[in-house]
Design brief:
The chain is mainly α. It is built from 1 helix and no strands. The radius of gyration is 18 Å and the shape is elongated. Bound molecules: zinc ion.
């Protein structure tokens, strides 16, 4: 083995989809693993309600709706 054989550096090492599971935006340290309090609340409420959708909180949200299939 030689050092000349090492692979090129990855753009995001050890970054396993560090994004908000609710909307896909970069998550915030404050609201980890979410990006904002809104997403945290949405997810929490949904979790508690067992699938209940919060009115007016679905902006940019996509679940079980594959758009790449037309
Ligand atoms: Zn979010």
């Amino acid at each position: 083995m030689t050092a000349d054989d090492n692979p090129p550096p990855k753009p995001q090492p050890a970054a396993k989809a560090r994004v908000c599971p609710n909307c896909g935006k970069p998550r915030s340290e404050r609201y980890d693993p979410f990006c904002s309090k809104r997403c945290a609340d949405v997810d929490l409420h949904r979790w508690l309600k067992g699938g209940y959708v919060i009115p007016g909180a679905e902006s940019g949200e996509r679940e079980s709706e594959p758009e790449d299939e037309d």
